[in-house]
Structure to design on (334 residues):
């Protein structure tokens, strides 16, 4: 299963010209299955471009999950109560689990875990821009739950219907857990807003001010500038475009902000009766591309932490392999 070595970070070109009648028949059958809404399994024939697109997206998603553990990990020792610490630990552990489901789904496409992680550690692979921002106060942890996980759910629920079945199955489990993550964040902020001191309420507002715009950028560049959206939607990998998901997120979040009692930091945010949606201000796409390009506030720190974890964990991998070899060498019990 893991023998189709490939450069996971190669730019996806057009699908190679089909060589034979057999390949044309395979392509036609694949297209018909996609059009019929069938799921594609790992053992099924698929065009190389489809496989590379999935490998890129799923591995980026996996990397985002494990890099996403870092900003939250920053607050484990300083959580304000045992209850909040236990919730935070459980959430971070869930993110590690999501990374594992997703790396396993990516491996079914012909890349090894080592190849995927090498791409992350050498800076060739992307991970979500949002995790390159710092967590400055405890309110950032609640805000990540509410807004970052909220954006993640908006983006990820449609992926439960992704045409590639192993990814879709992983996403069903992940989305269930993300809902809990979002709720715990909102609950934590609600307690601070309703029962907290004026300083705590100001801390929540400050966190929302800093996270709002980066969260809107999580959905990716505008559709007109998105390299992959059209093809990914044709293949049923993406079901809803970047801009449409961003709009859905804004519409849902404005109402939640009202209940919470915070102001979203956008003077242009207002209900547009004709569109049936909230209008919102312009995003700073220069900032987005700077962060994606490695120049965000925490890019270097995040990557260094992952590389360090890999190097310091070498003895665990070696011990696990030695143990597995020992078990395999033992005769089977009668
Ligand atoms: N950050 O053509 P586009 C989580 C890149 S985990 C960085 O629209 P696509 C959580 C994009 O890769 C959240 N790069 O691309 C975890 C492409 O560059 P390449 C992660 C971004 O793939 C722990 C270029 O821009 N979620 O929520 O069609 C704790 C053009 O973009 C970003 C997922 O990964 C970005 N934000 O659409 C808490 C979900 N956006 O690859 C929470 C799965 C775009 O050509 N992924 N780029 O070099 C997706 O749905 C899609 O991949 C995206 C982008 C919507 C992200």
């Amino acid at each position: 299963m893991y023998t189709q070595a490939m450069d996971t970070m190669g730019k996806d070109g057009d699908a190679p010209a089909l060589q034979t009648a057999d390949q044309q028949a395979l392509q036609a059958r694949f297209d018909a299955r996609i059009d019929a809404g069938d799921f594609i399994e790992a053992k099924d024939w698929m065009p190389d471009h489809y496989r590379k697109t999935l490998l890129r997206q799923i591995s980026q998603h996996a990397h985002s999950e494990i890099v996403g553990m870092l900003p939250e990990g920053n607050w484990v020792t300083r959580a304000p109560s045992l209850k909040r610490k236990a919730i935070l630990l459980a959430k971070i552990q869930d993110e590690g689990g999501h990374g594992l489901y997703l790396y396993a789904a990516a491996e079914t496409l012909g890349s090894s875990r080592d190849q995927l992680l090498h791409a992350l550690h050498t800076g060739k692979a992307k991970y979500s821009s949002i995790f390159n921002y710092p967590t400055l106060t405890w309110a950032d942890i609640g805000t990540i739950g509410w807004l970052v996980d909220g954006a993640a759910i908006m983006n990820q629920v449609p992926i439960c219907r992704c045409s590639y079945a192993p990814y879709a199955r992983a996403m069903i489990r992940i989305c269930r857990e993300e809902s809990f993550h979002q709720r715990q964040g909102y609950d934590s902020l609600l307690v601070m807003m309703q029962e907290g001191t004026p300083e705590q309420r100001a801390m929540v507002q400050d966190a929302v001010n800093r996270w709002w715009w980066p969260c809107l950028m999580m959905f990716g560049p505008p559709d007109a500038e998105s390299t992959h959206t059209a093809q990914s939607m044709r293949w049923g990998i993406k079901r809803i475009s970047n801009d449409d998901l961003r709009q859905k997120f804004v519409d849902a979040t404005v109402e939640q902000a009202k209940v919470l009692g915070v102001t979203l930091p956008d003077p242009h945010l207002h209900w547009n009766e004709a569109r049936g949606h909230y209008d919102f201000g312009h995003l700073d796409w220069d900032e987005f591309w700077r962060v994606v390009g490695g120049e965000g506030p925490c890019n270097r720190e995040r990557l260094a932490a992952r590389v360090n974890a890999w190097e310091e964990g070498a003895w665990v991998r070696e011990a696990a392999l030695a143990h597995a070899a020992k078990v395999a060498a033992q005769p089977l019990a009668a």
Observations:
- Residues 165-195 form the longest helix (31 residues).
- Confidence is low (pLDDT under 50) at residues 1-15.
